Amino acid sequence: MKKALIIVDVQNDFCEGGALAVPGANEIIPYINLLTKENQYDQIVLTQDWHPAHHKSFASNNGRQVGETIILNEIPQFMWPDHCIQGTKGAEFHPDLDRSKVTHIIQKGKNEVVDSYSAFQDNNHFMKTGLDDFLKFHEIQLLEIVGLATDYCVKFTCQDAVSNGYITCLHFNGTRAVNAKPENGKNAIYDMIEKGVTVLA
Question: Do 68 and 48 meet the contact criterion of CB atoms below 8 Å apart?
């Protein structure tokens, strides 16, 4: 069975000192590096938030406060600080992340009027990223997923992976949550398990 490792959004803005730093984000990088060193994957895919500066998920572009929610394209949209803007240092992958075995990069969130948490498609399900086509072309059946953040991009990537027919495993030690609300990370794990994701301790 062919398997791939999906490393979600391990970018400077989500790590310590970043514009949208996820608590404990830097702690997962050695764990991810160990996975890529000690396991044999047929593909290793990085995902990268790659927002235009005028992205509508940014509070600053809507005259709103970070943490508010608006309706964007008929669905709720959490208001984030400006982050992972195309071409900036914040959008770059964290320098400690070992990328020597990476075979593919998926950029998401490029459409300024719709956000994209999942590595497979945008939040409105309008546009695919090409990840599913890439994985199916390479006959991948099993996905192991790590990265940032548990309660947003990791959760939706895992759930879409199951929906697209992949055996899907989340490495619990390879992810951290934003926890905009204290229970978000824990609830995200429960949600993923309910949808058929296997959580590896």
Answer: no
Neighbours of 182 (CB within 10 A): 9
Position 49 scores a pLDDT of 98
- 153 tagged catalytic: yes
Angle, helix 155-163 to helix 184-194, in steps of 10 degrees: 10
| pTM reported for the whole predicted model | 0.97
pLDDT at residue 201, rounded to an integer? 83
- pLDDT tens digits for 92-132? 999 999 999 999 999 999 999 999 999 999 999 999 999 99
C-alpha dihedral sign at 53, 54, 57, 62: positive
Q: Is 116 left (phi over 0), alpha (psi -120 to 50) or beta?
A: beta
**Quick one: tokens of 201?**
């301790």
Catalytic annotation present for 3: no
**Neighbour-count burial for 15-29, b at 16+ CB within 10 Å, e otherwise:** beebbbbbeebbebb
- 84 as an active site residue: the answer is no
Catalytic choice (15, 108, 122, 132): 108
Exactly one of 9, 82, 115, 132 is catalytic; name it: 9
Beta carbons of 147 and 15 less than 8 angstroms apart = no
Q: What is the mean pLDDT of residues 80-87?
A: 98
